[in-house]
């Protein structure tokens, strides 16, 4: 039975992906900062909850596994909301965004590389279109995701025995996306579950390592 570790599994895309993998008979370990929400999601979906903050080295050590087939670095921080322009972005807050969106995924991947290498496993880093498009007000989050994209690309080159992907899931109806648009109605955005088949296609087909858009993966051949 394959084993997956998913960060940010208490809600949104992480929760939806965890539930889908459990239905496929995977052993899933999910982590997230909100212990109550994570435990509730774990009970409903059937995965193992390990609450904690991925920026905390002690928590990352608790996530170490001798055997692992899939790591999904999904936990993300939007940063300041409402979204300020870069000229007024508080640097201390930007450092926090990078700690969650860049440094924690790299540190967790470093920790789990031996297990992933042994299984010829998969690393999926959740990206954003803000990593490649210069949207006004998205300089903090977008630049962090751009950095994560580059880390993902280099990791793929340095570890050709692994399948290493960055995936842009598109705009989804999540709590983080709502924080990006305070007071606005985002009910027109797709639910997180709609992006899950794109992740499953990566796992099933194992295309070359690289950056993918969920919208492209969801197009039927």
Element order: H for helix, E for strand: EHEHEHEHEHEHHEH
SS-derived structural category: alpha/beta
Rounded mean pLDDT is 92
How are strands sequenced across the largest beta sheet?
3-2-1-4-5-6-7
Low-confidence stretches: none
Tally of DSSP helical segments: 8
Strand content: 5-15%
Q: Tell me about the biggest sheet?
A: 7 strands, parallel
The global form is globular
What Rg is obtained from the alpha carbons, in whole angstroms?
16 Å
> What is the number of E strands?
7
Instruction: State the helicity in percent bands.
Output: 40-55%
Task: Write the SSE topology.
Blueprint: E1 3-7, H1 12-23, E2 27-31, H2 35-45, E3 48-49, H3 57-62, E4 70-73, H4 91-118, E5 122-126, H5 139-158, E6 163-168, H6 175-180, H7 196-205, E7 210-213, H8 214-217
Parallel strand pairs: 1-2, 1-4, 2-3, 4-5, 5-6, 6-7
Overview of this protein structure:
The chain is an alpha/beta fold. The protein has eight helices and seven strands. The chain has a seven-stranded parallel β-sheet, with helices on both faces. It is globular.
Quick description:
With 221 residues, this protein is α/β, with parallel strands linked by helices. The chain has 8 helices and 7 strands.
């Amino acid at each position: 039975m394959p084993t997956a570790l998913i960060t940010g599994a208490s809600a949104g895309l992480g929760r939806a992906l965890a539930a889908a993998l459990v239905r496929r008979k995977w052993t899933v370990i999910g982590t997230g900062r909100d212990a109550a929400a994570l435990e509730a999601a774990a009970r409903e979906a059937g995965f193992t909850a390990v609450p904690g903050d991925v920026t905390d080295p002690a928590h990352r050590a608790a996530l170490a596994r001798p055997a692992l087939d899939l790591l999904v670095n999904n936990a993300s921080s939007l940063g300041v909301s409402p979204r300020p322009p870069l000229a007024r972005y508080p640097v201390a807050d930007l450092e926090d965004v990078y700690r969650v969106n860049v440094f924690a995924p790299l540190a967790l991947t470093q920790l789990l590389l031996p297990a992933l290498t042994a299984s010829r496993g998969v690393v999926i880093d959740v990206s954003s279109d803000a990593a490649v498009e210069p949207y006004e007000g998205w300089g903090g989050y977008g630049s962090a995701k751009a950095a994560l994209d580059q880390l993902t690309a280099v990791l793929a080159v340095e570890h050709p025995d692994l399948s290493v992907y960055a995936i842009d899931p598109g705009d989804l109806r999540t709590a983080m996306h709502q924080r990006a648009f305070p007071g606005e109605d985002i009910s027109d955005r797709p639910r997180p579950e709609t992006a899950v088949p794109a992740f499953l296609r990566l796992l099933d087909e194992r295309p070359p390592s690289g950056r993918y858009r969920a919208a492209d993966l969801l197009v039927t051949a």
